Amino acid sequence: MENLSRRLVYENLADASLKLYLVLRKRLEAAAKEIDLSYQQAQALTFLKDKSSVSMTALANEFGLTRAAMTGLIGRLVEKKMAAREYDPKDRRTVLIRISKNGKAKSDSYRKKLTAFFKKIACDLGSEERKIFIELSKKLKILDL
């Protein structure tokens, strides 16, 4: 009986986690669309925002994309003047990506939309529930606090 009970708990955790992921992903995609970005473009800008520059290879690795796919994604951000490509002065074969002022503004707008969404969620939670959510997120290494 004990093993069946544990298995059900794990299955329920898996189901709840998947549902949470899908809800959050849908909201993240909607927030990006509201500011004329794809979900991946918004995520790339968010990643680049606090960095001086990042190599295309590092970006591709971070997002689990091929270099070719990342090059296309960054190319669209460059066309929109939200990012810029530059060569590494130490190794001209390496392409570095940096966020532009326009990109930072879009990233800030995206963050504000997400903050408003989470504020609505937080209003439905009590103080203790919010603390539990944050603690669980830390344990799951979702939040880097």
Automatic annotation (TrEMBL):
HTH marR-type domain segment(s): 1-142
GO molecular function, one term: DNA-binding transcription factor activity
SMART domains: HTH_MARR
InterPro entries assigned: HTH_MarR-typ (IPR000835), MarR/SlyA-like (IPR039422), WH-like_DNA-bd_sf (IPR036388), WH_DNA-bd_sf (IPR036390)
Single GO biological process annotation from the record: response to stress
Xref: SUPFAM superfamilies: Winged helix' DNA-binding domain
Protein's recorded name: HTH marR-type domain-containing protein
Organism: Velamenicoccus archaeovorus
